[in-house]
């Protein structure tokens, strides 16, 4: 342990690393309840997604711990899973495709392979550095708003309205009441620095829901999509089969819809790119792992771990696997090496045998987690500049508002970049446009043309 992870060199020990790994797991274990809930909306088997989520998280986190020796955990990314289920799949469904999630998984596989190539040739750093900071922060904050609105919709807190687009749902329903209670519980726990506050918020909200079911307030009605909240252990504790999602790719779509497929891949690629690098830098900074000039040692190994995890996740049947900012919770507990990551991975493996619990958790119990994660991502807006270069200001703002209001992460990225490039050209700053941004601009203009022509 000492020689492999260099514990003394990093000022830590085995006990500290294990506790830090468990802390990280508690901070991000909500994904085991949230991800199956979100991806099931795309038509995927909820049990298979649970297993895929846990296995891919354990696999990618082990790679990060062993090859990069970083205390960083990975799992299916929030925001990316929402884009998968609520943007990509509905658009493909409108085209008459019966299993759109298979095409989305194919796009994630391609994205992961591209990431592996970009990591090998060190292109990812160039891509990250070419996008202006305001756009990055606007995209991050926009994803936060998007995740929040997905959560509010899932609990029925906001509903569709023909005259105002959205309206307040039935505030007397158990789902709405308990979702708000859960959000307040997370807020209170967060204030008192309770480890795993988000996970505890989900679990407490779920238990309150079970009480509501037992007392008759929450009425089970499968025909209306209202299912029992009580876990069913009749099939034992073995994890659900991966068969429904394992290697379920659809390459036939690509040949006839090249442009649509490219845009899907690019959006996954773009969001994952900045999410990963931003997370790695944030965790490394908190753990004192950055060099004096602010660089991240072995960043190539860390980025490669992320890319390989994404490919593995696609093969297993889950959305893009990425580094988790919740890893900072473990770092705050003293985690400094890959042993922390291995400890987290071990917890994900143990969680596989608790699937009846995680799969019984309803969407209204995950709403508090989605809204609170949205809050945490919204903090990026504090780093945005709302004066100065109008291209940076308006480009970042357009990216931010288009995500929740068009209900699409991809639309936010697309319109943000298109606005930024056009404003740079019109204000005489064309030389400041990096070739990568020109490529992005060209792809998105083609995408807009396909939308106009309905092709």
Radius of gyration: 21 Å
Strand content: under 5%
Number of helices: 20
Q: How many domains, in number, for the residues?
A: 1
Q: Spatial order of the strands in the main sheet?
A: 1-4
Indicate the percent of residues in helices: 55-70%
Question: Strand pairing plus helix content: what structural class?
Answer: mainly alpha
Family: Belongs to the nucleobase:cation symporter-2 (NCS2) (TC 2.A.40) family. Azg-like subfamily.
Membrane topology: Multi-pass membrane protein
Keywords: Cell membrane, Membrane, Transmembrane, Transmembrane helix, Transport
Transmembrane segments: 18-35, 103-123, 135-159, 171-190, 197-220, 259-281, 301-325, 337-358, 394-423, 435-453
Description:
By secondary structure, this protein is mostly helical. The protein has one domain (2-236, 257-453). The chain is 66% helix and 3% strand. It has helices spanning 2-5, 14-28, 31-40, 46-68, 80-94, 100-120, 124-130, 133-154, 174-191, 197-214, 252-256, 258-286, 299-316, 327-332, 338-351, 355-360, 363-378, 390-405, 409-426, 435-453, and strands spanning 74-76, 158-161, 165-168, 321-323. The strands form two sheets. A two-stranded antiparallel ribbon has the order 1-4. The radius of gyration is 21 Å and the shape is globular.
